Amino acid sequence: MASSSSLSSTGGPRWGSREGGRSSPIPYRQGPLNYWPPVLCKCGNKAGRLTAWSDENPGRRFVKCFSATPAMGGCDFWHWVDPPPSPFPRELLIDLRDAVRALRMENRELQGRVGDAARQQIWPVYAAEEQRALAEPIGAETVAVVTKKAEENAKLRCRIYSLEKE
Questions:
Q1: Model pLDDT, residue 22
Q2: What pLDDT shows up at residue 123?
Q3: Organism's domain of life (predicted)?
Q4: Is 98 part of any domain?
């Protein structure tokens, strides 16, 4: 029997998630209850049709009680829809599944790096603007002081010149 930890569907976190390493490598093309003819489980409800992605049964479809646990009012019904995969397609599907998962992980990592780089590039801009805003009043004061000192210096030079002539 397949364990539910190696399964997933669009049914939500109850069946697995795309973030985990055991999620479906491809999106489901139809919902788990969107198939015909219906298969009823032991509790009388339509069983959900899902896909296993374990190493033993990659891509192999099965039906299972959609309520899954007795606590949810479901039962332990499940049954394979597809025959077991032959060795070559099994290895091919496992390799493709692992490649998709590795590329998704790399993509998440690269997106994180891009976000970090963007934040690092934006932060100096904000810091420079903040520094400029703080420097503007200081710059105006400095200009006023320099201008005043230049005027005083000019007056003193005139005084020195007049004293030298006497």
A1: 65
A2: 64
A3: Eukaryota
A4: no
- Domain membership of residue 28 (yes or no) is yes
The answer to whether residue 40 is domain-embedded is: yes
Residue 140 domain-assigned (yes or no): no
**Residue holding tokens 């976190």?**
13
Q: Which residue has the tokens 């703080």?
A: 134
Q: What is the pTM of this model?
A: 0.55
Question: Rounded to an integer, what distance in angstroms lies between the CA atom of residue 76 and that of residue 90?
Answer: 26
Under 8 Å between Cβ of 96 and 25 = yes
Query: Mean pLDDT in the chain?
Result: 79
**Strand 7-8 with 48-52, pairing:** antiparallel
Closest to 60 measured CA to CA, from 108, 116, 1, 133: 1
Q: Which of 17-21, 115-119, 130-134 is predicted least confidently?
A: 17-21
Which residues form the domain of 17?
4-85
Q: Supply angle C-alpha 142, 143, 148, rounded to 5.
A: 100
* Cβ contact 11:32 at 8 Å: yes
Cα separation, 33 vs 104, in Å, equals 27
CA distance 89 to 72: 36
Domain count, the chain: 1
35-39, 69-73, 127-131, 161-165: which is most confident? 35-39
Beta-sheet strand order (sheet of 7-8)? 7-8, 48-52, 60-64, 78-80
Inform me whether the pLDDT recorded for 144 exceeds 80: no
